[in-house]
Amino acid sequence: MKRILCVLSEFGYWGEELIGPYETLMKSGMVVDFVTPTGKKPHALEPSMDSSFVDPALGKPVVSEEMAEKVKKMENSDLLDKPMNLSKLIGERPYMCSSTYLRDFEAYNQSVEKAADFLRKYDALLLIGGSGPILDMGNNQRVHDLIKIFVSEDKPVAAECYGVACLAFARDYWIRKSIINGKHVTGHPLEYDYKDGTGFYGYDINIGPAPYPLEFILRDAVGHEGEFIGNVGKTISAVVDYPFITGRSTGDSYKTGELLVEVLENGLRRYGW
Length: 273
Fold this sequence. Notes:
The protein contains 9 helices and 12 strands. It has helices spanning about 15-25, 65-75, 85-90, 100-120, 135, 140-150, 165-170, 215-220, 255-265, and strands at about 5, 30-35, 55, 60, 85, 125, 155-160, 185, 225-230, 240, 245, 270.
C-alpha cells in the first residue's frame, strides 16, 4: 500500500486542488496523510466552494456544482482536523549571527536527519495549491527541507498551482540553485494571474494581484536547460519530469493525481514535454 504525505496551507487551499488528487489516490488504494506548517486545521478558500464564482483571469466559472458540494463535504468532515505539525517535524535553520550558531546548526541538521528517518514510510509528497501557499509554503524553509528529503530518496514530488513555487525555492543551502534547475514544469502562467481579488482564509482582505508572477519565478528557476510550460489555450496542463509532477491550476487537479499514480504504479518518468 502506497502512502502519500500531503502539505496544505493554513491560509486557504483551493478545494478542487485537494479533491482531485485525493480522490484519485484513494481510488488507487493509497493512503493520504496531511501536514500543515504549524499543525492547524487547513480550510478551503470560500470561492472554491462557490459554483457561481467566475475566475477573473479566465472569465468563466471554474467550480462545478458537484465540486462545490464535494469541497463543502470535506470542509465539514473531520478528515483534516488533526494534521501533522511540520514545525515539530523539522527544526528551524538558525541565523548565522546567533552566538550559538555552530551548536544550533548541528541541532537543525540532526532534526532534518531525524525527519528523513520518519518520512521513509511515505512514497510521495503532494503540495496543494491555492492562494494560501503564497503566505506559508512558498518561502517556508521546512517545506523546502521536506521536498529535498523526498528528492534525496528518489521519491516523486507533486505540486499544483502556487504550490509549485515551493519547488522553485527549494535548494541546497550552500549551492543555492533551485532543485528544479534543468527540469520541465508547469504552473500558474502570467495569463492566469489575478489583477485583483487575491485573498486568504480567515482574513477579510483583498491584496489585489498575487505578490509575485509565478511564471517568471519558474522560468528563472529551471534555467536554460529546463523549460516552463504554460500550455495557455489548452484546458489541461500537467507535466512529469521525474521526480517532479506539476499541475498548472484548478482544472489540472485530477490529471495531476492520475500522473502521480502512474509514476508510483507504472514507473512513468516523462509526460507533457
